[in-house]
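Quick check before the chapter quiz. The format below is the same one you will see on the exam, so make sure you can read both the input and the output lines.
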Amino acid sequence: MSKILLQNGILIFADFVLENGYAYIVDGKLVNVGQGSLEVGPDVTRFDVGGKYISPGFIDMHVHGGGGYDFMDGTVEAFLGVAEVHVRYGTTAMCPTTLTAEASHIYTVLDAYAAALPQNTKGSAWLGLHLEGPYLSLGQCGAQDPKYIRNPDEIEYRDIIAYSPHIVRWSAAPELQGALDFADYLQSKGIIASLAHTDALFEEIVLAYDHGFRLATHFYSAMSGIIRKNAKRYAGVIEAGYYLDGMDVEIIADGIHVPSSLMKLIYKIKGAEHIALVTDAMRGAAMPEGPSVLGRLNDGLPVIIEEGVAKLPDRSAFAGSVATANQLIKNYIKAADVPLVAAVRMMTETPARILGVQDRKGSLEKGKDADIVIFDAELEVYMTIVEGSIKYERLTENR
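Here is the expected output.
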């Protein structure tokens, strides 16, 4: 029986913090959290966290890579490598995310995930795959390779879903021909339909919402706002995202993709309960700046990493972030002047609820998985615990 006691920390809950707190873990589950001291037996591994924060584990529901790896590499090594990099920054659970590709390579990635799943003992846990594309708008492709972009193909997506039980989310442009039938099918299979890389108008998004598109992938990035046609103004995806109270939104809070002014506006309108912070990190996360590749290593898009973000070589568009989860929280607090508990909630409880795993993850509650991050006031991570197992630890350095 594995037992861990974390003590002398500041517990983070959805709406408040509790000083001089403890968290007691037995066999991968939180069995007690509270204030003060807790009497336990001698067979317990104890950590005095020295007044640092004890937080629910960070959940990154949109991540492509890191540490020189990308999930589109389609190898077990890449899957394990990404998970082991991000766990050092507090990510206890993630949704490995694909890019546009031909169907044959999507199957390669599905196979790699299935093969890597039982071998993932050192990194962030996986909550299932997020397919981003290939059913996207050419007008909003961003850094997605346009040669693979196409309309939803019923035979194709039905076969892909039948092939893998690990798909939990699929991002697409809802205005495409066949996209609403696609969303209906996703709903029937319990898969989240997320709108992304879209030129839809307001009315199209409202209709898509009724068909299950309840999440906006990287809000503001690669989506329409107010446009003019024949002198008339039309509202777009962004306005619909604000209008629909039940629409959840992702924010790449690297401080570059979405500026401070918009981060404040999103928080004011949507609130922490409808915002999920995501890294959208590509292989350059936790790597030095310089040339890199978005997507699979052998034929992906060349990019340049500079000024804390990945860009196309001509600097015409961003090509994914290189952020880590702890940076997102720190950035949102600083850029939007939100409380720590709200920023943490957007990286824990909200994504857990969106992904439907709130019964076991996302908060410090008795009976839930012991997914815990210990960090200091600067959001530097000192320990990451995934389902009761210590995956990263430097709390005891130099002691």
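If your answer matched, good. The first strand starts at residue 3 and ends at 12.
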